[in-house]
Amino acid sequence: MAILSPSFLTFKAKKLNLYKITITVILSTISYLAGFQNFRGSISIDTTPSSNTVFRCAPADHKTTKLDFGAHHFALIPPSPVAREHHFPPCDPKYSEYTPCEDAKRSLRFDRRRLIYRERHCPESHEILKCCVPAPHGYKVPFKWPESRESAWYANVPHKDLTVEKKNQNWVRVQGERLRFPGGGTMFPRGADAYIDDIGKLINLKDGSIRTAIDTGCGVASWGAYLLSRNILTVSFAPRDTHVSQVQFALERGVPALIGILASIRLPYPSRSFDMAHCSRCLIPWGQYADGQYLIEIDRILRPGGYWILSGPPVNWETHWRGWNRTREDLQAEQSQIERVAKSLCWRKLVQRKDIAIWQKPTNHVHCKANRRVFKRPLFCNSQNPDMAWYTKMETCLTPLPEVAGIGDIAGGQLAKWPERLEAIPSRISGGSLEGVTANNFVENSRLWKKRVAYYKNVDFQLAKTGRYRNLLDMNAHLGGFAAALVDDPVWVMNVVPVQAKMNTLGVIFQRGLIGTYQNWYAFQSPSNLGTDILIRDLEKQQVKTTQTRHRFSVAAFADCMKLAGQSGFGKTYDFDLLLSVHLIICPDAHSIMLRLLLTALLISLSRCEAMSTYPRTYDFVHADSLFSLYKNRCDMEDILLEMDRILRPEGSVIIRDDVDILLNVKAIVDVMQWDGRIADHEDGPHEREKILFATKKYWTAPNPDQDQGRVAD
Fold first, then answer.
1. Is the pLDDT of residue 660 over 50?
2. The domain 159-373: what is its CATH number?
3. What is the SS3 string spanning 130-185?
4. If we measure between CA atoms, which residue out of 91, 86, 88, 174 comes closest to residue 616?
5. Which tens digit of pLDDT belongs to each residue from 16-38?
6. From CA 366, how far away is CA 348, in angstroms rounded?
7. Over the stretch 103-134, which tens digit does the pLDDT of each residue have?
8. b/e for 150-188, b at 16 or more Cβ within 10 A?
9. Separation of alpha carbons 449 and 422, rounded Å
10. Cα–Cα dist 313/309, whole Å
11. For residue 529, is pLDDT > 80?
12. C-alpha distances in angstroms, 206 versus 183, 224, 358, 362, 513?
């Protein structure tokens, strides 16, 4: 299965000429198609090979000329009622906690070494559920923040596993209809608040220099939950494992969290994202695998001068070795291994006090490059993109920091302290690393989103109601303007930067003191070997049929073009649409609009939509700006909307802004998904093509399991 790489920013230098040619070809193709599709004459066009028809304009007859007041967008004729029918029954109640890309049964097909089977493994197209995931019977709207930090409804997450397994560690308790979170943890028996106070005695958590943090193997995310009161925003992650619900508990508490694991692929964040990383008895083998590959990955995502905090084994093993049921020799060896890897990364051990040890990453790599004569490994990476982190394999090399002028300088520039950091010009913009975005663009974008959010609140009174929503998702976050405009509300926003986006802006979002993740809502699943025979077999498998011999020949020619393109450096790592556009010019029979439609259908049939690494009912509110335009002809609109439905809570809300034609299609689908929705004008008035869909998911749940109500459609 081939996954599209997020290397959408640049081609290699040796392919610049091919890139320029390709761009010219694409622009020519677009002009040709636009001219053809905008032609609205009544002349019949013969598309057979022998056609030599010449079209001439008839002279204007002023006596009969009529003014045309018709609409000129492409939604000219509504589809027939049959074509507009959509049917999404409720899924079987057994899917109430379905996580498509972390499915326990599917994961068993994959390698168990290094827990690779617990990574993302998404279903193929034919495995995707075409139904709406139900909430469990008795589901209730979660408590408002900050009450939700300590309490959740048991009916919403009906699991008692952790209450038994972690009974003595105060993770979670069941009290009547409620789950109670005392704030305890394996290494903080006095509670997370007291534990954070202990850390605060060792490093400064109050001056705004630490804003973003990541908690590896987070449990129920009490560390992240109690850091919020200190204006520190934490991304907590843990795998979907035998505990089943630890990340789900975190989300139900109103704490940012994702399903994730350190195994073989990079964490889905750009380089230099976090001010602080934390592991409290997370049981990750930090010193193992290729000279400490997991610590190398933490180094990649830590900012210059960032901190790594470790508590639990092997820290303070001299005191705890008996309680940990391990030998002193084993724990001492593990401690030595971690110390060695940290030194090889040029980290400085700041302090170890009782059960807490803290290391600091250097602010630049001037000394580190010099000491490679002492530490032979890891070597500095030469060619990798440090921000590429979607299905990207972990490296065994050290990610170099940006060059500095002096030994006392901070690589990449000094970040402002929070809250000034939110509106300060990010160094990725001021330094020119984000091509096409200037400081003025950034300021204007912030102003624009404040205006848009104010408009949203005027239309959606629930968004304006303090405390109504807590967990928010922005599915196409751009520069993070939507989240920034809500910073004074008691909410947090997970900012998604799609891999298909024109610019990789996630680094800017983190530099603003916000959080987010990469996500590709679409993946191309043609084989990595783009040979003609394999592609033709794919065509047959996907049942792409044509009735004309010349079109069948064109499909074969297209396969040959893909093969040639692959040999030229395209192929599996670049966009299928690019190959398609090139084909329309350089391959035989390239001028058939019928073929264009056929190959577009092929693109959709060979693609699939991918789910987020999160549980159902994660978010109270979902925002999608131009998302469906971005994935047009790439991913089935129904699948994206079903995924939005899966991760949205009952009575949660959605705002989708996009071209009017696209929104009309979206509206037709959500109308049968038990959503209430309406399309409103753009904030600048009715003459804008972009419109806004406001929708709310209705309350419904799985039937009472104690009553015989028949089987729910699967």
1. yes
2. 3.40.50.150
3. CCECCECCCCCCCCCCCHHHCEEECCCCCCCHHHHHCHHHCCCEEECCEEECCCCE
4. 91
5. 444 544 555 455 555 544 444 44
6. 14
7. 989 999 999 999 999 999 999 888 899 999 99
8. eebbbbbbbbeebeeebeebbbbbeeeeebbbebbbbbb
9. 13
10. 12
11. no
12. 21, 15, 17, 21, 15
The DSSP code sequence of 310-364 is EESTTTTHHHHTTTTT--HHHHHHHHHHHHHHHHHTT-EEEEEETTEEEEE--S-
Q: Where residue 383 falls among pLDDT bands split at 50, 70, 90?
A: confident
Domain boundaries, the chain: 159-373, 526-605
What is the Cα–Cα distance from 274 to 358, expressed in whole angstroms? 15
Q: What pLDDT is stored for residue 263 in this prediction?
A: 96
**What's the Cα-to-Cα distance from 554 to each of 62, 140, 580, 601, rounded to whole Å?**
44, 56, 12, 14
Comparing CA positions, the residue from 554, 579, 555, 575 lying closest to residue 565 is: 579
Query: CA triplet 344, 348, 350: central angle to 5 degrees?
Result: 150
Phi, psi of 493 (to 5 degrees): -125, 125
Instruction: Answer for the pair 517, 258: CB distance below 8 angstroms, yes or no.
Output: yes
Residue 237 φ then ψ, to 5°: -145, 150
- Which positions ≥6 away from 467 have C-beta within 8 Å? 144, 145, 490
Q: Which of 259-263, 370-374, 644-648, 655-659 has the lowest mean pLDDT?
A: 370-374
For 573, half-sphere exposure in the C-beta direction (CA atoms, 13 angstrom radius) is 15
- How far, in whole angstroms, is CA 533 from its chain's centroid? 34
> Which residues are within 8 A (CB) of 198 and not within 5 positions of it... i.e. 6 or more apart?
353, 354, 356
Q: What are phi and psi of 632, to 5 degrees?
A: -60, 135
**Backbone angles phi and psi of 622, in degrees to 5:** -125, 135
Q: DSSP string covering 290-305, please?
A: TTTHHHHHHHHHEEEE
Residue with tokens 């700041």: 350
pLDDT at 222 over 80: yes
For the record, the structure tokens of 231 come out as 């204006």
Overall pTM surpassing 0.85 (yes/no): no
What are the pLDDT digits (tens) for 317-360? 999 999 999 999 999 999 999 999 999 999 999 999 999 999 99
Tokens standing for 81? 């009622």
Q: What confidence score (pLDDT) does residue 609 get?
A: 84
Distance of alpha carbon 115 from alpha carbon 113, whole angstroms: 5
A 10 A CB-CB count for 531 gives 14
Among candidate residues 257, 328, 262, the one with its CA nearest the CA of residue 298: 262
CA dist., res. 657 & res. 624, Å (int): 6
Distance (Å, whole) CA 644 – CA 652: 11
Q: So what's the pLDDT on residue 291? A: 86
Which DSSP letter does residue 416 get?
P
Using DSSP, state whether 17 is helix, strand or coil: helix
- Report whether 608 contacts 100 (CB < 8 A): no
Residue 75 burial (C-beta neighbours within 10 Å; 0-12, 13-18, 19+): middle
Which amino acid would we find at residue 425?
A: I
CA 631/CA 628 separation, integer angstroms: 5
Residue 177 has pLDDT above 70, yes or no: yes
Provide the pLDDT for residue 384: 79
pLDDT bin (cut points 50, 70, 90) of residue 598 is low
